[in-house]
Design goal:
Elements (H helix, E strand, L loop, with lengths): L5 H14 L13 E7 L5 E5 L2 E2 L15 E3 L2 E3 L1 E5 L6 E4 L3 E3 L4 E8 L4 E7 L9 E9 L4 E6 L11 E3 L3 E2 L10 E4 L4 E6 L8 E4 L8 E7 L9 E3 L4
Parallel strand pairs: 1-9, 11-18
Antiparallel strand pairs: 1-4, 2-3, 2-6, 5-8, 6-7, 9-10, 11-14, 11-15, 12-13, 12-16, 16-17, 18-19
Length: 235
């Protein structure tokens, strides 16, 4: 078994337990890595784990796979391919050692000239009530400063995050990737590096989830405009 949704996995485990509760689980959510695939490009693509397609349904701009995909521990390559027959490679991760029990978000991004894949481990830790965790992904070809404020507040002081093109808070390891903010700080604005006027893009997060994490991706649509969107953790 190369992959299953978590929901299907739990059904299988429950059935096995009901048949014989003396047998140990062969597979459990803590024994595999869980991956969410996200398309932040205008292309229509399919996601793959190794040579296996994750889903027969193509992902268009701002779409993610439904539910977590399972990756067996060990070295694997995750990729995005075209919907043609046979499919052509769009971009892929390097061969990566995946860790059991860890969640990952995999994002296909484009910097204006080339496609690449961002592989971001999930390291979210619950925050206190009245706050939420925000991870920002800059899936554009432009380095930028990002400010998270209350909707009516002006930007000032140090940026909430300063990101190079094609990078994310927490970087490749995911460490401290989720910035703890009050739930009222739901407006996120993107500016050219070192500036606080002429926002390149603005996004209001609806119903910021107290004690949970939100990933906000800034990406360019088919006409080159920056079009942010939210990705929640896969379940």
């Amino acid at each position: 078994m190369s992959r299953l949704s978590v929901a299907s996995l739990l059904v299988v485990l429950s059935f096995a337990s009901a048949c014989d509760d003396k047998k140990p689980d062969i597979v459990s959510p803590s024994s595999v890595a869980l991956v969410d695939f996200v398309n932040a490009t205008p292309l229509s693509v399919k996601a793959y784990i190794g040579a296996d397609a994750v889903t027969p349904v193509a992902l268009t701009f701002q779409q993610a796979t439904t539910g977590c995909s399972i990756v067996q521990p060990g070295t694997q390559t995750l990729s995005f391919k075209t919907t043609a027959t046979p499919p052509a490679d769009v971009a892929a991760t390097p061969a990566t050692a995946f860790t059991a029990g860890v969640r990952y978000t995999t994002i296909l991004a484009n910097n204006g000239t080339a496609n690449s894949v961002l592989l971001l481990p999930e390291t979210f830790t619950s925050v206190t009530a009245g706050s939420y965790g925000l991870r920002i992904v800059n899936a554009t070809g432009t380095a930028a400063d990002f400010y998270a404020t209350a909707p009516g507040a002006a930007v000032s002081g140090t940026a909430t995050a300063a990101l190079a093109a094609m990078s994310a808070t927490g970087g490749a390891t995911g460490a401290n990737g989720y910035i703890t903010l009050p739930v009222a700080s739901s407006r996120v604005r993107m500016f050219n590096t070192g500036t606080q006027t002429g926002a390149l893009s603005t996004f209001d997060i609806s119903n910021t989830p107290a004690t949970q994490g939100v990933t906000l991706v800034f990406a360019r649509n088919a006409v080159g405009a920056i079009s942010p969107f939210v990705v929640m953790q896969c379940v």
